[in-house]
Amino acid sequence: MLIFEKSKSGRHCSLFPPCDVEVVDVPAKDQRKAELHLPELSETEISRHYTELAKKCRGVNDGFYPLGSCTMKYNPKINDDMAALPGFAEVHPLQPEHTVQGCLSVIQEIETLLCEVTGMDRLTVQPAAGAHGEFTGIMLIKAYHESRGDFKRNKIIIPDAAHGTNPATATMADYKVVTIPSNEHGCVDMEKFKAVLGDDVAGLMLTNPNTVGIFDENILEITKLIHDCGGLNYYDGANLNAIMGVVRPGDMGFDVIHLNLHKTFSTPHGGGGPGSGVVGCKKLLADFMPGYLVDGDAVKKFVKAPKSIGDMKAFYGNFLVVVRALTYIKTLGKEGIPQASKNAVLNANYMMNKLKDLYTMAYDQICMHEFVMSLEDLKQKTGVSAMDVAKALLDNGMHPPTMYFPLIVHEALMIEPTETESKETLDDAVAVFRKLYEEAQTNPQALHNAPVTTPVGRLDEVKAAREPVLRYEWK
User: Fold this and answer.
1) β-strands 360-361, 412-415: how paired?
2) Which of 195, 371, 433, 468 could form an S-S bond across to 352 if both were Cys, CB 3.0 to 4.6 Å?
3) How many angstroms from the chain centroid is the CA of residue 329?
């Protein structure tokens, strides 16, 4: 029930202290002609309402949350403590530079550290999310080509296992998308890739490891071929959690990269944000960077790149997300960053090997941070779909993994355990998956009915997508 539906006329609570400044009446011409539609409840009712809502929510704090390709790992609370410091939380974006030297130091330090992690030369914290960072990166590539008078390059090459935002980003930048199919190992089909190369290629968009959790062994050849035909390489950093501190995209041949600080570097990203899709680049693109970069030693200052593509967001990005990410990096340190990646890879391979005797692995080989199962065989034999298994996981205290993605795998469940989960948690999750597999053989209807223990049961997701109710209608 919505809080508006619980409202009773005349109920109220005193939450605000008496006004301690002069009261200035709003001129009649600026006053509302009708009362605001606000719910009227007591403080007790408000408290219970939001407590009830909190109990219906699910997050990493509630249990295993293996959302593939989203890296839903635990966010250390020290990150929030640092972001809540008054010098960070109460800063104003229009303050003079000399009053925010500490904040400038944060931006400069995270640029230095992330450039070291990625093999880039410069980095901007302005983009607000992953897709926003993607668009920024492709606009840098576009600006580079156009600055050289090279307007014939109108194609961006993207593997079919890419995140859906990649082709959307390239299209928004007015490029034609050329999709390359995957081979039997889940990587780029090299012959199909070579066939589309030419002087009309602006660049490549690719993540490595890719969306099926496989590290492409041909990556150095792939990026070299793009450079040889005059294009540039863009790295989608969504899966950096598997390789940070171990392998650098810059050393793989990539020229520009976005990072999801709200994933890999453990800052909250549920509920729509805030995110941070910082973008790093090699020197050849540095003159086109957006936003405000930070330079200087003793005295730090904002600078604009000489050929900047312009601002991608107001001011300096989601700064408190940057503070959280820097805290995470400094907490882990030089030894902890690669260890986190190795643990993520270990956890994914452990769980995959504990399940592959029952479930069909889309690519039965060593994976990186995530793996993809295909439940196509299970559906054909029992009628139980990936959706059914995902819903049944909810009844067993587990958030479902990503469903039906990537599109190249039918009846896909993509599982990313992350490095913050213990062996005991993984063993419990494996036991649930195995139980559901057996239940699919003996009692498939139970999985069709799932979930039955959640606040609401199986929803009509097609109707919700096609006929969404986006606003409350007052009676």
Assistant:
1) unpaired
2) 371
3) 18
CA-to-CA distance for 252 and 247, rounded, in angstroms? 8
Q: Which helix (H) or strand (E) holds 210?
A: none
Of 191, 165, 187, 167, whose CA–CA distance to 179 is shortest? 167
Tokens of 24: 């200035």
What's at 404, amino acid-wise? Y
- Residue 124 bridge partners (DSSP): 279
Contact 290, 232 (CB under 8 A): no
Pair 109, 326: CB distance under 8 Å:
yes
Q: Which of 12-16, 230-234, 444-448 has the lowest mean pLDDT?
A: 12-16
Structural domains for the chain: 61-71+336-465 (3.90.1150.10), 77-331 (3.40.640.10)
Strand partners, 155: 176, 201
pLDDT level of residue 270 (50, 70, 90 thresholds): low
Amino acid identity, residue 195?
A
CA atoms within 13 A on the CB side of 246: 18
Q: Which range is least confidently modeled, 140-144, 145-149, 167-171, 264-268? A: 264-268
Structural contact between residues 205 and 169, judged by C-beta atoms closer than 8 angstroms: yes
Inform me whether the pLDDT recorded for 110 exceeds 90: yes
Residue-wise pLDDT tens digits, 416-472? 999 999 999 999 999 999 999 999 999 999 999 999 999 889 988 899 999 998 887
